[in-house]
Design goal:
By secondary structure, the protein is α/β, with parallel strands linked by helices. It has 12 helices and 15 strands. It has one domain (11-248, 283-439): Aspartate Aminotransferase, domain 2. It has helices spanning 4-21, 43-55, 62-75, 86-96, 121-129, 148-154, 174-184, 235-245, 293-324, 359-368, 399-407, 419-437, and strands spanning 79-83, 112-116, 133-137, 159-165, 187-191, 199-200, 203-204, 211-215, 228-232, 331-332, 340-341, 346-351, 373-374, 393-394, 408-412. The longest helix is centred in the C-terminal third of the chain and has 32 residues, at 293-324.
Length: 439
């Protein structure tokens, strides 16, 4: 009778054979789609998923622990907490800063959190979900990141934290932001959901602030389907994040384990009787935002590919930049923040004021050629219906955020783009501009 290892090995070999038998359709310019993003995987990823499913350990387990360890090593953080999405990671990171365990430094209802008006809603939503007040400032064109001078002017007596994303993989001016953080004793949450692998002064983004987040949605730098993480190097903050993620409990035992603290029945917390089971003591109004081991298993396989994914994104970005440089009279091309090496999520483009065409015209041309385009998420978020009648403060006129909403779009650089696809993208820009010359 064959043992389990032999049977699993046969399953994995059949999966490899199946994946290799699936031939991709040849790219046909103008007929095949050119996505802005997508999952990139092979038989190794599928076999990791199957390996976890054969264990039938349906919550976080051995793969989750392995992923958290390997991810921490990659970014240079001491602690990683896996969760079910990048949006949940943002909610957990900011919620952690409201914990009574932080004493006088905890965020309280009415405290202000500085952020930018242009971006994705779930960078901002946790501020409102925790009864805090977002303070919106503008961004700079070309980098699409926070205008530090406006942020400096926005600091007031109620300012307690900053929460910012590294836009489309381009790091914000971390040195300038950290000066404000240190000068005013503020918390900093770095949203790295679109920026995994980006460097600032050769250091990974997410390791400068107090807490950072990542997303593993299929469009992002690596994927586990749905998934995200909070990472940091502060053990106390990591424990608090874990508590908010795991129902708000005070216990930090992994699933299926007991008595990690060595005194499970010897705690005295709050008004509970001494010795009450620590597994059922709750210190926060928390959630259940855990990921499964099957998701983590895919993540472990993807981690091996992540350096290559990042290199491919940078290479595709470079090819697009070189190919589009001749159109800079009409297009504002992106610039890497000084001292940074971005891990680009997309290639952002803004139409210049005096360009003889609109965003709708060039986007329409690209989409007609089946080249996918995207906006910079919500544009000026204050024009979105979800923030109507919410409490917030604005500093400045947000003119660049408005400009992004009307004149900016981006195209993909993800690793699934072939050289043929990138060449086709550039050919369609040339066709568009050649058409302008014939008007």
């Amino acid at each position: 009778m064959r043992d389990e290892a032999e049977i699993r090995g046969q399953i994995f070999e059949l999966v490899r054979e199946l994946q290799n038998s699936r031939k991709k359709d040849a790219f046909k310019a103008g007929e095949s789609s050119v996505p802005y993003a997508g999952r990139v995987y092979d038989h190794e990823d599928v076999n990791h998923l199957i390996d976890a499913s054969l264990d039938f350990w349906l919550t976080a387990g051995r793969y989750a622990r392995q992923f958290e360890s390997e991810f921490s090593e990659f970014v240079g953080a001491k602690h990683t907490l896996l969760t079910n999405s990048g949006s949940s990671a943002n909610l957990l990171a900011l919620s952690a800063l409201t914990s009574p365990k932080l004493g006088d430094r905890r965020l309280r209802p009415g405290d202000e959190v500085l952020t930018v008006a242009s971006g994705f809603p779930t960078t901002v939503n946790p501020i409102l979900q925790n009864n805090l007040v977002p303070v919106f400032v503008d961004v700079d064109l070309k980098t699409y990141n926070v205008n530090v001078n406006q942020m400096r002017a926005a600091i007031g007596p109620k300012t307690r934290a900053i929460m910012l994303a590294h836009t489309l993989g381009n790091p914000f001016n971390i040195e300038a932001v950290m000066e404000l953080v240190n000068e005013h004793e503020l918390w900093l949450v770095e949203d790295c959901c679109d920026a995994l692998g980006a460097l600032y002064k050769r250091q990974h983004v997410g390791t400068f602030g107090h807490l950072a987040t990542a997303s593993f949605y299929p469009a992002h730098h690596m994927t586990m389907g749905e998934g995200g993480a909070v990472f940091c190097s502060d053990k106390r903050l990591a424990r608090i994040v874990e508590s908010f993620r795991d129902w708000g409990r005070d216990c930090w035992c992994p699933p299926g384990q007991d008595n990690s603290c060595g005194k499970r029945f010897d705690w005295q917390i709050g008004d509970l009787p001494r010795g009450y089971d620590h597994k059922y003591i709750y210190s926060h109004i928390g959630y259940n935002l855990k990921a499964t081991d099957m998701q983590a298993a895919i993540g472990v396989a993807q981690m091996k590919k992540l350096p290559g994914f990042i290199a491919d994104r940078r290479a595709n970005f470079k090819r697009l930049y070189l190919g589009l440089s001749e159109y800079q009279d009409a297009l504002i091309l992106p610039e890497a923040t000084e001292h940074s090496n971005p891990s680009w999520f997309g290639f952002p483009i803004t139409i210049r004021d005096k360009a003889p065409f609109s965003r709708a015209e060039i986007v329409g041309h690209l989409e007609k050629s089946k080249i996918a385009t995207r906006m910079l998420f919500g544009g000026n978020l204050l024009r979105q219906p979800l923030y109507k009648d919410r409490e917030y403060r604005v500093v400045g006129d947000l003119k660049n955020s408005d400009r992004i909403m009307t004149d900016m779009f981006w195209i993909g650089v993800y690793p699934g783009l072939t050289e043929e696809m990138v060449s086709f993208i550039l050919s369609q820009f040339r066709q568009f501009f050649d058409g302008l010359a014939l008007r």
